[in-house]
Specification:
It contains 12 helices and 12 strands. The chain has 344 residues and is of the alpha/beta class. Among the domains are: 51 residues, lambda repressor-like DNA-binding domains (434 Repressor (Amino-terminal Domain)); 131 residues, Rossmann fold, CATH 3.40.50. Strands 2-1-3-4-5-11 form a 6-stranded parallel β-sheet, with helices on both faces. The longest helix is centred in the C-terminal third of the chain and has 17 residues. The radius of gyration is 24 Å and the shape is elongated. The termini are far apart. 45% of the residues are buried. Keywords: DNA-binding, Transcription, Transcription regulation. This is LacI family transcriptional regulator. It holds the Pfam family LacI. GO terms for molecular function: DNA-binding transcription factor activity; transcription cis-regulatory region binding. InterPro entries: HTH_LacI (IPR000843), LacI/GalR-like_sensor (IPR046335), Lambda_DNA-bd_dom_sf (IPR010982), Peripla_BP_I (IPR028082).
Length: 344
């Protein structure tokens, strides 16, 4: 055996090593690790940097949360401030989460992750066990945060999921079923050239809504036409641009299913610009049944997903996991409902 192979494994970084690297006392490191507010911002930053540099993992990361609690949970939204403020989905989730936590002793921390720097900072925060659990909203397939939560064995519940094989707990709506109901309704109204504007397909919710659209057409023996599919991003701008693209490619279309209400509002703007009447020339259906649906002209037919209830249920599942870390993670799919208004 070589001399290199006989070397003992590197010692795990200690609390004392972190204190020495940060230039603070052991007690200060302990307070930072345990989430105590009794630490200056300067000292906290120094300790967090030392933890990251040394790869220190607090001992409590391996202990039961029953014996090591911070009485705080984080609601993490990896989106921009502009998207957070413009999409009713997020405000409804936040309303449900805060309402469900109102009677508990837990503090809710809202965390936006807009770039790599903020993701790294959140990683250090979570590794230090500064919260008892995480609610993660707006899950994209390439987002490293779910894997981080699994690696840290931190209680976590997602709004949505990465795929049908998701291993973390989650709450989401029946996206495919809602899309099928929307397209079946359009078919029942005699529409024959039904287009769709999708959401970002790196999100399972958007992919499922596209799948539901295709399933409904297949059930009705309507031939697939990829020229009737435009890709959007759940924003009003994306819906407007997607509709313009569809009209250029398939000017004879007579209906469109948009994967969100905001995109449907944008699509209706594009239809007005093109001189198309809603619903006489083109019927429009959205998804969410948000406040947007009731304020378009004409009012928007939409698939209702119980967003506020999703936020409440996420909290209940997270509290179950915090109380009993070894239990199986629950995964819940809530039903959707088509709300018919004048646009279709």
């Amino acid at each position: 055996m070589s001399r290199a192979a006989q070397q003992p494994p590197a010692a795990r970084p200690t609390l004392e090593a972190v204190a020495a690297r940060a230039g603070v006392g052991r007690g200060t490191v302990s307070r930072v690790v345990n989430g105590s507010p009794r630490v200056s911002a300067k000292a906290r930053a120094a300790v967090e940097q030392a933890i990251a540099e040394l790869g220190y993992v607090p001992n409590q990361a391996a202990r039961s949360l029953v014996t090591s609690r911070t009485d705080a949970v984080a609601l993490v939204i990896p989106e921009s401030v502009a998207k957070l403020s413009s999409e009713p989905y997020f405000s409804d989730i936040i309303t449900g989460v805060s309402a469900e936590l109102a009677d508990s002793d837990l503090q809710l921390l809202l965390v936006l992750v807009r770039d790599e720097h903020e993701r790294e900072r959140l990683t250090r925060y979570l590794a230090a066990r500064r919260v008892d659990g995480v609610l993660l909203v707006s899950v994209h397939q390439d987002d490293p945060l779910p894997e981080l939560l699994e690696r840290l064995e931190l209680p976590a519940v997602l709004s949505g999921r990465r795929s049908a094989q998701e291993t973390l707990g989650y709450v989401h709506a029946d996206n495919a079923g809602g899309a099928r109901a929307a397209v079946r309704h359009l078919l029942s109204r005699g529409r024959t050239a039904i287009a769709t504007v999708t959401g970002p397909l790196d999100m399972e919710a958007a992919a499922a809504r596209l799948a539901g659209y295709r399933q409904a057409l297949d059930e009705a023996a309507v031939p697939a036409d990829e020229g009737l599919v435009a890709h959007g991003d759940f924003t009003e701008h994306g819906g407007r641009e997607g509709m313009r693209d569809l009209l250029a490619r398939r000017p004879g279309l007579d209906a469109v299913f948009c994967a969100s209400d905001l995109m449907a509002a944008g699509a209706m703007q594009a239809l007005r610009e093109a001189g198309r009447r809603v619903p006489q020339d083109v019927a429009v259906v959205g998804f969410d049944d948000s406040v947007v649906a009731r304020h378009t002209e004409p009012p928007l037919t939409s698939v209702r997903q119980p967003t506020e209830e999703m936020g409440r249920l996420m909290v209940r599942l997270l509290l179950e996991e915090i109380a009993r870390p070894a239990r199986l993670r629950r995964q819940v799919v809530l039903p959707t409902e088509l709300v018919v208004r004048e646009s279709a």
